[in-house]
Each structure stands twice: as structure tokens, then as C-alpha cells.
Amino acid sequence: MSAPDVLPAWEPGEGAARARALFTEAFGGEAAGVWSAPGRVNVIGEHTDYNGGLALPIALPHRTFLAVRPREDRTLRLVSSSAHGAAELDLDAVGPVGSPAEVTGWPAYVAGVAWAMEQPGGPAQRRRLPGADIAVVSCVPSGGGLSSSAALECAAAIAWDEIAGLGLIRDAPDGAVSPAEVDAGRAVLAALCVRAENEVAGAPTGGMDQAASLRAHPGRALLLDCRDGAIEHVPFDLAAASLELLVIDTRAKHSHVDGGYGQRRATCEEAVGVLQVRDLREVADDVAAGATLEAVLERLETEEQRKRVRHVVTEIQRVRDLADLLRSGGLTAGGPAARAALAEMAALLDDSHVSMRDDYEISCPELDLAVSAAQSAGAHGARMTGGGFGGSAIAVVDAADAARVRAEIARAFEDAGFARPGFLPAVAASPASRAEESD
């Protein structure tokens, strides 16, 4: 068997050059600039975001790059290195799913951002955005559960913010802008991207993906409170503990527009109505304060509701527990303390996968095999990550052993007759930003 496929991230300059080259080929002339945004991998906290819960993602070094040139009219022309042909839209004729102005396919994720910005209360409500020619290239695997759609939205958002002079991105390396002010604008853009994905692209996702792409910090996991949008940057440097976060792209494609995701969200909303609570986060908080989960579950009407609620409530607690562990520095403490911390992390990741497989029922044979093969190869915990029904899994492995673990997982996939998996080196990376060849 040949060496497993490792999918490296592009350096910012390489990604910008690729985007500019595609732009010139498609549209002629030069782009005004290149903007990029990362995909994300969620360390723990799946399907908690739309339930008002907690999540713990990191931004990946793998990014989507947009070369952009504003236009004098309201035409949006789009080309992607991963799609055949170009798309052309009128920004005055973009609307939500089900409306006469519905946009289909991947262009909806770009056009939807402009639409959301121009809605009442949006930053471009009183100043219409210019049209644009946009060329898209990406090293974020599409359909891999690593938020390629959010990366596309967030790169488009920061590009239009700068081109239209909206002023929401206020990064200032000299400290002239406070961290709170920097994050405030990014939080606004993240919310707009969520609206674009929900209403124009028709994917009923929560806000974790966009928050990670716009608000994460390098070397940190983003502890996101999905109820109020509050964040905490939690230390996440596995290399300091001689560990690696291995992302396994199963190549089993998924889509948030498909019905399975929406069905689970609807079931959670049904359970909220039966329990007469604000959201399932309220249940999780009550359980954390001493309430009995089983007593809550008995009040629900169906076994499906009980299973979905049990996953969400226990997953929120797992996020809390892992964040506490990372804050403690136990992984780098050395000796028995480090071994105990690593065992605790492994149990949290393993339990999360079992919960998603059995209670939320969003795994698939490829994801289950990725997890079990990683565990058999010596991983310190493994779980599927992302929305489910395909996509990726993660495993914490000894850095010195990563190549062997990759090879054993790839062999297990070959033996099962599955498509060859891909592997991504995952470190906590930087959020969406302007990208140029000189970076």
C-alpha cells in the first residue's frame, strides 16, 4: 500500500497567488485584493450550537482564498477552481430559499452574504454593496465536515467589508484597537454569515462554524457560548505535550442542506416545547446544578426526543470538562498528572463519538471505522467531528507515532473497501484576514 494521503495547508502567499492566477484566467486583468478564511475542526461539542450550548472548535490552517475586484454595477460573477463554468448573478435578484429569487448551488454562500449585509439592520442597509468579480480557490476539503462553506462565506464577508468600507474588521497590530472592539466587528460578520447560510443557502446550521472562522486565535481553541455569543480563547497546543490532532477525511461526502441535519434540529425544538424551556442549554445547566437527567428524559414524548436530548445535554458537559482540562495545563504537566489528563481527554472524545453514533445517530460506517481504527492504533481518544452523515473524524495521537497511525487507518479503509481517506495536520490557526503574496 502506498503512503496515506496527507492534505497540507497552503501558505498564505501560495493561496493568494493561486486565487490571482484563476482570477486573471477567468476575468482578465488584476484582482483588487485577496481575502481568505479558514475551515474549522470541532474538538468537541457537536450539534450543541443551535441548542444554545457550548462548542470548542479551532480554526484550521487550511483556508479558502477569494481574489476579488469590485464592479461599478450590481453584477456578481463567480468562478471556482473546484466547479465547472462560471456563475453570474444580479445582487438585486438574490433572495431566500423558496422565494422567486432563490439562488442554487455554491454561489448561494457568496451571494447570501451580500444579501444578509443589506437586510434591515445590516451594515450595508443604507449603502448598497458593489457587484464583484470573484475567483475562489481552497485547500479546505469540500464535504469533509470541516466547514468549507463557512470559510467561503467568511472570506466573502471580510472582502465586502473592506471593499465597501463598512469598518467591521478593525484589526490593528499596534494595539490602537482593543481586543473587544476587534472581536465585536467579527462577531457581527459571523452572525451575517449564519443568516446567509440558513436563509439563502438553506442549510439549517448553528453559528459555530462562522465563529471559528472569524473569531478564533492561533494556538487557542475557541470556547463558544452559542446562546449569547460569548467566547473564551482556551490554550490548545498539543505539540507542547508531544501530541498531534489528526483529522481523518473519510471522503464520505455530506451536506447540511440534506434532511438529516434539519430533522435533528426539529426534534430538539420539539423537545424544548415539551419541556417548556428556553433551549436545551437550560436543561444542561439544570443537570450540571444537580438535576437528574433521567427524570428530565422521562417527561419527553418519544424515544427519539429522549436520545437527542441525552446527546445534547451530555455533550455540553463534555465541552465544559475538556475546557477545564485544557485550562489546567495538565497535558503538559509531565508524569502521572499528564497521563491522567490524557486519559481524561481520551474518555471525553470517545464518549462523544458513542453519543453521536447511538443517541444522535449521525455517524456512518466510514466514520465509525476511522474512530475504531484510530483507537486500535493507539490514539488517545477519537470521535467524528462536524455535522455528521459523512465527513471527518479526529484522533489525538502521539506526534512521534502519527505516521504509523495514519497508515493503519488507511489500511483498515482499504480492507473494508472504502475510498482512500485523507489526513490533515491540524493546529489552531488564524482567523479570516486579507491575504497577499507578501504574507
From TrEMBL:
Q: What is the lineage of its organism?
A: Bacteria, Bacillati, Actinomycetota, Actinomycetes, Micrococcales
The lineage's top-level taxon is Bacteria
Keywords, A to Z?
ATP-binding, Carbohydrate metabolism, Galactose metabolism, Kinase, Magnesium, Metal-binding, Nucleotide-binding, Transferase
Boundaries of each GHMP kinase C-terminal domain copy?
341-414
Protein name as it appears in the record: Galactokinase
> Which cellular component, as a GO term, is one annotated location?
cytosol
Q: Where is the Galactokinase N-terminal domain?
A: 22-70
- Enumerate the NCBIfam families for this protein: gal_kin (TIGR00131)
